Amino acid sequence: MTHFPQPHPSRRAARVQLGDSVLAAIRLEDGRRTKAKLQTISVTGGLLQLAHCLAQGDFVEVAFQTQAGPVHGMAEILSPTQKQSNGVLQAFRFVALEDDDHRRLRTSLDHVVDRNLLGLKSSGFSTY
């Protein structure tokens, strides 16, 4: 069954800052592919570092690896937030995740948040 992430109206989903270590594969509607670095992730979306800006409103497939396994979902590209010398930061929101992908994402996020609360350095995410 497919999960359609819905933001909570009064509370933002917990976000995990990942830095430059997690690679994500992006497939656009026309079949083109590009790579990105996942900067921030939550159960409702995230922030990508891309070489080139994608069009706001584009629907893409996003895939990345976590310690709980691969996560693959459909996402809508939001407006770019910041241009950098090595590309652009651009937000996305998940519009559909299979139940297993949602479970792996939530498990990985919970793992990172729990370890951070304990003061331990660890990531539930890994490079592709």
Main pleated-sheet profile: 6 strands, antiparallel, barrel
E-strand count: 7
Task: Report the span from N to C terminus.
Answer: 26 Å
Which structural class matches the secondary elements? mainly beta
Task: Write out the strand line-up for the largest beta sheet, numbering strands in chain order.
Answer: 2-3-4-7-6-5
Radius of gyration: 14 Å
Number of helices: 1
Q: Helix share of residues?
A: 10-25%
Multimeric state of these chains?
A: single chain
Uncertain stretches: none
Order of helices and strands: EEEEEEEH
Mean of residue pLDDT values: 83
Mass-distribution shape: globular
Fraction in beta strands? over 45%
Write the layout of secondary structure elements.
Blueprint: E1 2-3, E2 16-28, E3 33-41, E4 45-50, E5 59-66, E6 69-84, E7 87-98, H1 99-117
Antiparallel strand pairs: 1-7, 2-3, 2-5, 3-4, 4-7, 5-6, 6-7
What does this structure look like?
The protein is mainly β. 15% of the residues lie in helices and 52% in strands. β3 and β4 (45-50) form a beta hairpin. The longest helix has 19 residues, at 99-117. It starts with a strand and ends in an 11-residue tail after the last helix.
List the keywords:
128 residues, 1 helix, mainly beta
Question: What's this, in brief?
Answer:
The chain is mainly beta. It has one helix at 99-117, and strands spanning 2-3, 16-28, 33-41, 45-50, 59-66, 69-84, 87-98. Helices cover 15% and strands 52% of the residues.
